[in-house]
Recover the amino acids of this structure.
């Protein structure tokens, strides 16, 4: 039983390594990483230039604001 589990682990490791190398060599990984980075940059730019960002304490009623601070 232990030998069979070891064989399955080795085969799974080999197949996952093969799949990962196939993804890296087809440039799918670099294209996906580039798309994610550009999307993140766009989101960060949108959030940093937005006036919609409000502190949580700014939305509290006046009585609650005095307690929260």
């Amino acid at each position: 039983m232990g030998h069979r589990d070891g064989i399955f682990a080795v085969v799974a490791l080999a197949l996952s390594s093969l799949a990962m190398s196939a993804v890296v060599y087809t440039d799918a990984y670099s294209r996906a990483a580039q798309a994610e980075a550009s999307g993140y940059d766009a989101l960060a730019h949108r959030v940093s230039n937005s006036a919609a960002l409000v502190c949580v304490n700014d939305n509290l009623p006046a009585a609650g604001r005095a307690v929260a601070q």
